[in-house]
Amino acid sequence: MTLLHSVLDPILGLALLGTTLLFLAEFRRGAALRFPSARILLATTLGLAALRLGLFIAENGRPPLAAPGEAFSTIAFSIVLVTFLLELINRERSTAFLMLTAATVFQCVAIVAEPVGTVGPELSKLLIQRWFGMHAVTAILGYTAFAVSAVYAIVFVLLYADLKRRRFGAIYEQAPSLEELSRTAIRSSTLGFAFLTVAFIVGAVGWARVMDLPVHQEPKVVSTFVVWLVYGIGISLYWFAGWRGVRCVGITLAAFILMILSSWLVPIVLGSVHGVRGVL
Question: Which helix (H) or strand (E) segment is 158 a member of?
């Protein structure tokens, strides 16, 4: 772990900080005055985060999920990847500094946290299986994309309410249009839906190999399927039924609330055999 923690982690942290500051400066300048180097720096930062993830898997034979510090680094990677994909697909990055700020915080916490988590024998057998690593990482990517979508949806709702009341705060002078916010929220939700679909498929195949409990009897799987279904309905209404604005944004926010309940409340109330130290 010397290479990761003595060399790559500080470089990645600085790259994230620099990228965040550049996108913040771009936000303050306005959409018409973009820095040409911003996308290059974002891609470079994503490459460093992907390299860190790959090196960790190569050295430990499992994804970084066994301890909070490991999970935070995976979440930071997920945020950077989703931000990059949205910028690439949507070319909307006026609020990307918010996402990158969160990624920077997660990565900094990961640097100072426990470097490598202690893995119990049962968890170790699960983590080293490739299907589980792919399932866990794609699930985190899905949750991250849904969280990013919720940020854009919340900004949409706040701006929409202010416009209705004819109140115009200074922060909204640089904010995207309502149409742009809703489009970005839906596209981020679509990314999350795609990632979560992969997580479901891979998880279902792997579950049948290692679990005696039928997958439909696991409360968290059922509740997450409901989240997946609600997101799917909202996305389908946007892409195929022409729904726009408040209606679609409202569905994604409702689905995000369901996702939070599914991730934290359902396992506490109904119990669950799911999870790696509460991450999934």
Answer: helix 130-164
